[in-house]
Write a structure and sequence with these properties.
This protein has eleven helices and six strands. The chain has 245 residues and is of the alpha/beta class. The protein has a single domain, classed as Orthogonal Bundle (Phenylalanine Hydroxylase), CATH 1.10.800.10. The chain starts with 11 loop residues before the first helix and ends in a 13-residue tail after the last helix.
Length: 245
Amino acid sequence: MHTLPPRPVYSDEEEGTWRLLHDRQTDKLASAACRPVLDGLRLAGFEGQRIPSLRTLSANLQRLTGWQLTRVEGLVAERPFFELVASRRFPATDFIRKRKDLDYTPAPDLFHDQFGHVPLLTLPTFCRFFQRFGLAGQGADDDAVEALARIYWFTVEFGLIRQDGELKAFGAGLVSSIGELDHALSPSVTVHPFDLDAMAARPFVTTEIQADYFEVPSFEALEQAFDAWAVARGLLPPEAAKPYE
């Protein structure tokens, strides 16, 4: 198992920031997030009263899906990110935003990386897609890397999914942000039908709230469509589209 550093010693204010973020987001997600996110928060071992330990979360993921966490200082460049995800390792920070940045932080903190991303790493179907996303990026040229970054943005970060006829959130940028979550599920946004080519062609801005989202019909559809998309572009060999092991 990948060795992680010990859990940092957090201040009382930092622990309080976690509790504020956790409690208000958990209340909102109960009606706004898809079931796999809600189940994943429980399965991964999140606690409302205490900032989680990367070691604990990683051990739980390893047991459930074979994934692990690796500690990073901040944003990871695209190509090293592909390498990590291809080997079933997700990069996560262990610092928390300042209280003054409760609603927005320019650099992803542990609430985004852990609370936002980890829940779906308990879901085998999502993990199959995500690992093959990393594999596809390993040999990609610059144009393909840009296309993959856009697909990532509109699925892993800001994806919506249809559940029992209703739109629910699954992207980490929505799961970890109360403002983005309310906005994404409001009538003021444009929700496009699921289309990986359309995602890959649509630019995005990281510093503004989103105006456009894409609806994924199911995680199985996302997995299958991505395999076909990547194989058609030579980013994955045909034999890569096989059951996750």
